[in-house]
Specification:
The chain is of the alpha+beta class and about 500 residues long. It is built from 12 helices and 6 strands. The protein has a 6-stranded mixed beta sheet, with helices on one face. Helix 2 runs antiparallel to helix 3 and helix 4 runs antiparallel to helix 5. It is elongated, with a radius of gyration of 40 Å.
Length: about 500
């Protein structure tokens, strides 16, 4: 690639990207305000110059006193559209410069107008959408300005006036006029070159920022698609297993029921045996279905060999929550509390609701251990029969708090909180998950109780760990915080402040 091609590439001649403001309406409004401010500044600078004698005879053409103010103000007006029409605004500023210089060159030397010329060139390079047109316009500006300089340094009258002003002394290596010419050349190269380079650097920076933002969005979308695909595949696998389990046990039950019906009056012993097979098969089927559904709900990724409580149906209930709180995995100090209204209300919580709260607690504590610096946590189980809409028959909830911060380098998949949300949605419950106001993370799930209250045969085993006492603490140690982004899935109509907040 030759130098010309590399230069064209640097200026983005073939780039399929336009530099546009993030908020065009606000950006264009700000440009109007900026343009008005610069107009006021140039008019004020023109008045200061007039008062200092800059526009006296010999320094500019004769004219009314207000003419320098008008020329200065009009030259700055195009900056009000510097990002909406960058090339047009740049060409307009330099055309007005040329006209003002031909009429009254002293006005072009106002410092405020020097800022105007720089901003016009910078904005034209940084914000031009048509990069080829921008290069042509910049070339025209540079030819005009350096042509103007060439005319000035070759003007004999200007040279004689300068030499007369300095008195003909030559204290340096160069003659005064050559030194002045070289000085003007260096200043203008730095001036115009700086505006062009800064404008192009700004263009490249904006382009890189947009590319990074697009790549980040693509990565996040692909990661979410992968998570969804993994969850879908796992659910399909479990669904096939569930189908096989149900089909097998229903077939066994059907065969044994038919056999029992045929021999019920002829051979009661064989009938009893067949009924026993039906009983065992139905119990095994229910246990296996509970295990599969629990696996479907559980997405915490507990590693093999973990000392986390078993997932059997006998522990996945309210009473098992106390056991989860007493787990010493990784030395996490955990306090368990039970709040009932009235006393013994937890004994009437249906088994499915107890299992859902158990799984929620298990998920929350596993995430604390894996993803947080927490050294302490609390698990609070609340059951109340005093209901109000949208839970008129009462509710049961579990709240897990920790006192840690996110552990660096332990980003999670986010599926844990998704599982909690789905589990609560299956019972028309509410979920709150997110950082606490002080430090740590909070997970709270509230599920409504059914009308009339379930019977004992459907209740959670025991009274949610009342035998463990109202509060239980195990030794503190290492723990961890959430590696997923906090999310709030539903708002609690009546947030409950945790008792004895450890923060």
């Amino acid at each position: 690639m030759n130098a010309l091609a590399r230069l064209a590439q640097w200026f983005g001649v073939d780039a399929e990207w336009d530099h546009l403001p993030d908020d065009p309406r606000r950006a264009y409004r700000n440009d109007l305000i900026l343009g008005a401010c610069i107009v006021v500044m140039t008019v004020a600078a023109a008045e200061l110059g007039r008062s200092a004698g800059m526009f006296e005879a010999g320094h500019g053409r004769e004219g009314p006193d207000w003419l320098p103010h008008l020329l200065a103000g009009v030259t700055a007006v195009p900056l009000a559209w510097r990002r909406r029409y960058p090339i047009t605004a740049m060409l307009a500023v330099y055309a007005l410069f040329l006209g003002t210089g031909l009429f009254n060159g002293a006005v072009t030397q106002i410092a405020a107008l020097q800022v105007t010329y720089f901003m016009a060139l910078y904005s034209g390079v940084a914000w031009a959408r048509d990069r080829r047109a921008m290069l042509i316009a910049v070339g025209v500006v540079l030819l005009t300005m350096f042509g103007w300089i060439a005319v000035q340094v070759t003007d004999a009258a200007v040279r004689d006036e300068f030499l007369e002003y300095i008195g003909g002394d030559n204290p340096g290596l160069f003659s005064p006029w050559v030194a002045l010419t070289l000085y003007q050349l260096l200043v203008n190269v730095a001036y115009f070159g700086g505006a062009i380079i800064l404008g192009q650097v700004s263009w490249h920076g904006a382009r890189r920022r947009q590319q990074v933002a697009e790549q980040t969005a693509t990565i996040e979308r692909q990661a979410q698609e992968l998570r969804d695909h993994a969850v879908l595949e796992e659910r399909l696998r479990i669904a096939r297993e569930l189908h096989d389990v149900v089909a097998h046990h229903v077939s066994v039950i059907g065969v044994q029921a038919a056999a029992a019906r045929r021999v019920l009056t002829k051979d009661p012993a064989r009938a009893t045996e067949a009924l026993g097979v039906i009983e065992r098969s139905s119990r095994e089927g229910v246990e296996q279905m509970r295990g599969l559904v629990g696996t479907l709900r559980q997405v915490d990724g507990t590693p093999p060999g973990s000392t986390a409580p078993a997932d059997s149906a006998s522990t996945a209930n309210l009473a098992g929550i106390a056991t989860l709180a007493g787990d010493t995995t990784d030395g996490l100090a955990c306090v368990y509390r039970l709040v009932e209204e009235p006393t013994g209300a937890s004994a009437s919580v249906p088994g499915p609701i107890g299992a859902a709260l158990y799984r929620t607690t298990q998920e929350a504590l596993n995430n604390v251990r894996k993803h947080s610096t927490a050294r302490g946590a609390s698990v609070t189980l609340r059951v109340s029969h005093d209901g109000e809409p949208p839970m008129p028959h009462g509710w049961a909830e579990v709240e897990v708090l920790d006192d840690g911060r996110p552990l660096p380098g332990t980003s999670g998949s986010g599926l844990g909180l998704v599982g909690i949300q789905e589990r609560a949605a299956a019972h028309d419950g509410e979920v709150e998950a997110g950082p606490r106001a002080t430090v740590g993370f909070r997970v709270r799930v509230r599920l409504p109780l059914p009308a009339g209250g379930p019977g004992r045969e459907h209740s959670a085993s025991g009274a949610a760990g009342r035998a463990e006492g109202p509060e239980r603490t195990v030794p503190a140690g290492r723990a961890a915080a959430w590696g997923v982004e906090p999310a709030r899935y539903a708002s609690s109509a009546e947030p409950v402040a945790p008792e004895g907040d450890r923060s």
